[in-house]
Amino acid sequence: QVQLVESGGGLVQAGGSLRLSCAASGGTISRFSMGWFRQAPGNEREFVARISWRGGSAYYADYADSVKGRFTILRDSAKNTVSLQMNSLKPEDTAVYYCAADPSRIVSVSSSSYWGQGTQVTVSS
Protein backbone atom coordinates (compact mmCIF):
# COMPACT_ATOMS: atom_id res chain seq x y z
CA GLN A 1 0.00 0.00 0.00
CA VAL A 2 1.51 3.29 -1.12
CA GLN A 3 1.26 6.28 1.19
CA LEU A 4 1.66 9.84 -0.07
CA VAL A 5 2.56 12.81 2.11
CA GLU A 6 2.53 16.36 0.77
CA SER A 7 4.52 19.25 2.17
CA GLY A 8 5.55 22.77 1.22
CA GLY A 9 2.25 24.61 1.31
CA GLY A 10 1.87 27.99 2.91
CA LEU A 11 0.98 31.64 2.49
CA VAL A 12 2.59 33.65 -0.30
CA GLN A 13 1.94 36.97 -1.99
CA ALA A 14 0.74 37.14 -5.56
CA GLY A 15 3.66 36.81 -7.93
CA GLY A 16 5.60 34.66 -5.51
CA SER A 17 6.68 31.04 -5.67
CA LEU A 18 6.20 27.86 -3.70
CA ARG A 19 7.46 24.33 -4.16
CA LEU A 20 5.27 21.46 -3.08
CA SER A 21 6.70 18.02 -2.47
CA CYS A 22 5.03 14.62 -2.37
CA ALA A 23 6.93 11.81 -0.66
CA ALA A 24 5.86 8.24 -1.36
CA SER A 25 6.40 5.27 0.92
CA GLY A 26 5.35 1.64 0.83
CA GLY A 27 6.35 1.14 -2.78
CA THR A 28 8.45 2.40 -5.67
CA ILE A 29 6.66 4.97 -7.78
CA SER A 30 9.09 5.19 -10.69
CA ARG A 31 6.56 3.64 -13.08
CA PHE A 32 3.51 5.24 -11.55
CA SER A 33 1.52 8.05 -13.06
CA MET A 34 1.82 10.89 -10.51
CA GLY A 35 -0.17 14.07 -10.36
CA TRP A 36 -1.20 17.16 -8.49
CA PHE A 37 -4.80 18.25 -8.05
CA ARG A 38 -6.37 21.10 -6.14
CA GLN A 39 -9.65 21.98 -4.52
CA ALA A 40 -10.76 25.46 -3.57
CA PRO A 41 -13.64 26.05 -1.14
CA GLY A 42 -16.97 25.45 -2.85
CA ASN A 43 -15.30 24.00 -5.94
CA GLU A 44 -14.76 20.49 -7.19
CA ARG A 45 -11.31 18.96 -7.17
CA GLU A 46 -9.47 19.75 -10.40
CA PHE A 47 -6.44 18.58 -12.29
CA VAL A 48 -3.28 20.70 -12.08
CA ALA A 49 -0.37 18.66 -13.47
CA ARG A 50 0.79 15.07 -13.90
CA ILE A 51 3.81 13.13 -15.01
CA SER A 52 3.48 9.60 -16.33
CA TRP A 53 5.91 6.85 -17.21
CA ARG A 54 6.08 6.03 -20.91
CA GLY A 55 8.65 3.23 -20.83
CA GLY A 56 12.38 3.04 -20.23
CA SER A 57 13.46 6.38 -18.80
CA ALA A 58 10.80 8.40 -20.64
CA TYR A 59 8.17 10.42 -18.86
CA TYR A 60 5.46 12.70 -20.16
CA ALA A 61 4.17 15.76 -18.32
CA ASP A 62 1.00 17.69 -18.98
CA TYR A 63 -0.68 20.64 -17.30
CA ALA A 64 -3.99 22.36 -16.88
CA ASP A 65 -4.26 25.41 -19.12
CA SER A 66 -4.61 27.64 -16.06
CA VAL A 67 -1.11 26.76 -14.81
CA LYS A 68 0.76 26.09 -18.04
CA GLY A 69 3.96 28.10 -18.18
CA ARG A 70 3.86 28.87 -14.45
CA PHE A 71 3.97 25.43 -12.80
CA THR A 72 6.43 22.60 -13.37
CA ILE A 73 6.05 19.02 -12.18
CA LEU A 74 9.26 17.15 -11.40
CA ARG A 75 9.97 13.66 -10.21
CA ASP A 76 12.99 12.23 -8.43
CA SER A 77 12.83 8.47 -8.72
CA ALA A 78 15.85 7.99 -6.47
CA LYS A 79 14.10 9.85 -3.66
CA ASN A 80 10.62 8.51 -4.52
CA THR A 81 9.26 12.04 -4.65
CA VAL A 82 7.30 14.26 -6.98
CA SER A 83 7.42 18.05 -6.71
CA LEU A 84 5.38 20.92 -8.05
CA GLN A 85 7.27 24.15 -8.61
CA MET A 86 4.75 26.98 -8.66
CA ASN A 87 5.84 30.38 -9.94
CA SER A 88 3.95 33.62 -10.61
CA LEU A 89 1.25 32.57 -8.20
CA LYS A 90 -2.16 34.20 -8.39
CA PRO A 91 -4.91 34.51 -5.78
CA GLU A 92 -6.99 32.08 -7.84
CA ASP A 93 -4.35 29.42 -7.20
CA THR A 94 -5.47 29.34 -3.56
CA ALA A 95 -6.61 25.82 -2.75
CA VAL A 96 -5.75 22.61 -0.97
CA TYR A 97 -3.29 20.76 -3.20
CA TYR A 98 -3.34 16.98 -3.32
CA CYS A 99 -0.81 14.50 -4.64
CA ALA A 100 -2.16 11.40 -6.39
CA ALA A 101 -0.67 8.24 -7.83
CA ASP A 102 -1.71 5.23 -9.86
CA PRO A 103 0.36 2.21 -10.91
CA SER A 104 -1.50 1.43 -14.12
CA ARG A 105 -3.69 4.35 -15.19
CA ILE A 106 -3.10 7.98 -16.01
CA VAL A 107 -4.03 9.83 -12.84
CA SER A 108 -7.17 11.89 -12.86
CA VAL A 109 -9.71 13.04 -10.32
CA SER A 110 -11.75 9.88 -10.88
CA SER A 111 -8.97 7.35 -11.54
CA SER A 112 -6.23 7.58 -8.96
CA SER A 113 -5.58 4.74 -6.57
CA TYR A 114 -3.68 6.72 -3.95
CA TRP A 115 -4.14 10.21 -2.53
CA GLY A 116 -2.26 12.31 -0.03
CA GLN A 117 -3.93 14.29 2.73
CA GLY A 118 -3.42 17.64 1.03
CA THR A 119 -1.51 20.82 1.76
CA GLN A 120 -2.95 24.33 1.87
CA VAL A 121 -1.69 26.99 -0.52
CA THR A 122 -2.92 30.53 0.04
CA VAL A 123 -2.00 33.36 -2.32
CA SER A 124 -2.73 36.87 -1.09
CA SER A 125 -3.37 39.77 -3.43
Give the secondary structure arrangement, pairings included.
Elements: E1 3-7, E2 10-13, E3 18-25, E4 33-39, E5 46-55, E6 58-63, E7 71-76, E8 81-86, E9 95-102, E10 114-115, E11 119-124
Parallel strand pairs: 2-11
Antiparallel strand pairs: 1-3, 3-8, 4-5, 4-9, 5-6, 7-8, 9-10, 9-11
Poorly predicted sequence stretches spanning 5 or more consecutive residues: none
Could you tell me the radius of gyration in angstroms? 14 Å
Question: What summary fits the major beta sheet?
Answer: 7 strands, mixed
Number of strands: 11
Overall form: globular
Helicity level, as a percent range? under 10%
Question: How does this model look, in words?
Answer:
This protein is mostly beta strands. The chain contains no helices and eleven strands. The protein has strands spanning about 5, 10-15, 20-25, 35-40, 45-55, 60-65, 70-75, 80-85, 95-100, 115, 120-125. The model has no long low-confidence stretch (mean pLDDT about 95).
